[in-house]
Amino acid sequence: MSSVRITSVLVANRGEIARRVFATARSMGLGAVAVYSDADAGSPHVNEADTAVRLPGNTPAETYLRGDLLIAAAKAAGADAIHPGYGFLSENAEFARAVQDAGLVWIGPPVRAIELMGSKVESKKLMDAAGVPVLKELDPADVTEAELPVLIKASAGGGGRGMRVVRALKDLPAQLAGARAEAASAFGDPTVFCERYLETGRHIEVQVMADSHGTVWAVGERECSIQRRHQKVVEEAPSPLVEKFGSMREALFTAAVEATAAIGYEGAGTVEFLADDKGGFYFLEMNTRLQVEHPVTELTTGLDLVELQLQIADGGALPVRQPVQRGHAIEVRLYAEDPAKDWQPQSGTVHRFEIPGIDTEFTVPVADRGLRLDSGVVDGSVVGVHYDAMLAKVISWAPSREAAARQLATALAKAKIHGVVTNRDLLVNVLRHAAFLAGDTDTAFFATHGLDTLSVPLASPDTERLSALAAALAQAAANRQSAKVNCALPSAWRNVPSQPQVKVFASESDVHKVDYRFTRTGLQSSFVERAELESATPSTVVLFVDGLRRRFDVARYGDLVCVDSVFGASNLTVVPKFVDPASVVAAGSLVAPMPGAVIRLGASVGDTVTAGQPLLWLEAMKMEHSIVAPAAGILTELPVSVGQQVDVGTILAVVTASDTEETP
Question: Which of 134, 151, 301, 611 matches a 20 to 30 Å C-alpha distance to 355?
Fold first, then answer.
């Protein structure tokens, strides 16, 4: 009987990680089986699989968290192994056990290792006993003023869900209740614990790989300190902090190997530490799965970690010598979210997704530098509300950290991402920030340098005005091109004085009333007086501005106009000449900023509320969002209930301002 057991792999996941595993499976000659919810029926990972199995429903609880359905899908499709990806059931010991009981190969660590590391409370005790430095666990009931601030963490999960920072004892009960509710929703376990919170810690993790023959690798470290809501945004290898302290790497690797060996681990895993600015570090947790940020390790070592996972699961042994790190890699997570609005997640259609200069997708570039894309979306993909808001990971690899940052920032700045608001401009601002380039990247990066500054659009107000002019000229060119009567003269050309053409566009920050006309001397506009037109087509406008030639690429999707240039992207909306009265809402109305589900109410009709008081909470894209009173007053309407699904623009509540004057 052949020792090879794996011939076809089902990925019990979705999006970019499913596509990532499929890429390696194909290169190894293995079959690829996808599963998909109804919301993911048009997802790229479904189309790329050899076979795809539908999981009826939309929510994770109905689909990707149903271990019984996933195992049944594997059997129906003839898969003999299951790769869990990350998130969902990837660190669920019961699912791993059920996979093996069903006669399938589990591409992950032993069930016992998952159990030991599955509880952050118990895992810290185990690591403490093994001699690995740990932060003291605090019982939430016994936290004192002297121990503040503290971090509440979910025992059973990660990814920032169930985490809260508490700086005042009076806030602890409410934050505990919220953390428990979120942990129960995300992981099915409400258990939480507290630990001391280091305001300016550095998040350092070590990638480990172990086989069943006794070999354990500490493959390399990564730094993931730049985070929002305790979720990583920028990751890199090697760590700037570890590079600063020569002896730190060896100590980290020793601790990681000891932690791995202590639990009889096999496969890919990550030992996470919180470090201080003096090189000291403390065990946080061990992720018993492949990490989101694994590409930076692949680029700096040349390894295919998924291939190693598959080989180890099939009984293979690691080579005696492990590769050394080369160069520097930086990964950014591109999210459909608006950082300037408290990281508000976005949904909708991704009309265009194009990042220039990409060398490879899901694999290591063959040269000594390059750009890699691991994406879950393509042109036309729909971003829904049921799953994480991450669209893609863009990874740069170069001989030096500075070169990697520059290469990645340039590619992102030139990317064309149409249809949903993203954190792209914030990522570029971070990569170009002096503190980042100096390696000063602790977990308080956004707080220290100001989210309002870091989230400033790349397109300046002047660039946005030029983009609005370009949008108007492109529309005129499109109208001329589609006209039934052919005319060689540009729209708005007059041989006598006349009124200009006017088009109105709205952006996030302004309304642009663009006027223009063409005369014998060329383009005239009081909106941008110094612009001269070289050429205009429905998709490209070239202007001379103050003697500089500037090109604008214009794309229109209904009333949405996306204008891209090397100076930044502008998203504009065509303002209609007449406003539909039905679209106007009453003063004091709070409308849903995103699609989501109402999960809690904070007030009742008739209550007196204060400005900023939470009235209800929405859950969207695995995150909670509070809807607060815009001003003091009376809550006069609350037309929603717990469990109700709402769309963007749905009226959630109405607050009527208090009448402070006495009635005569």
Answer: 301
